[in-house]
Amino acid sequence: MxxxxxxxxxxxxLGGSYLFSWLMAVIAGNTTQQLVNRTGxxxxxxxxxxxxxxxxxxxxxxxxxxxxxxxxAFSLRPTADSAAHVSFRYASHSxxxxxxxFFSASAPVWGISAALLLLGKRAWxxxxxxxxxxxxxxxxxxxWVAGWAALTVMLTFGLALSHQDLVNMWRGTPFLVVLLxxxxxxxxxxxxxxxxxxxRVNQLAGxxxxxxxxxxxxxxxxxxxxxx
Length: 228
Description:
Elements: H1 3-39, H2 50-66, E1 70-75, E2 85-89, H3 95-124, H4 142-156, H5 163-190, H6 194-227
Antiparallel strand pairs: 1-2
Helix pairs in contact: 1-5, 1-6, 2-3, 3-4, 3-5
């Protein structure tokens, strides 16, 4: 087993997740702050941010439940500390629960991103396979494009991870590192050819992340222009 390949494959999976989540938190947080500053109201009080907040908290809860975490509180009412929140109870020694912390904390980022990418594909390339997508063969279905654009703006506000979300990701990280390391070792022993597929998935995930970051920056600049 090559330690360099291990670091590249497992490190890309984990490091890419953290970098993408952090950048999304920074960009979406800045977008939200600009609107809060411009309107003088909190994000929980602005109607066009509520869909993103609802989806954000729902993804936390649904993914947490899937991993056996017990939801002890779910609120969409703004408080002095947050626009909404979900609280969990879990066994700290449980591998499943600690992995659940990582995935439920990061769920708004990858869940919303996946939904917008799938809808974007349907809006801009409705009849093409994923492998055939190119800027040169756009075939927009304009009603879908309008709906996708509106959802992109509203759900972008749900991409921002809170400080507590990042803390929960960190609490689950040691368990995820061990799991990914074991998965790599098993594949390297039994099916080394599958490692190339894993690396390919990392590359595709990186491409999707760049697309979502670009969309988030576009929304951020649009908000900055409107709020000026």
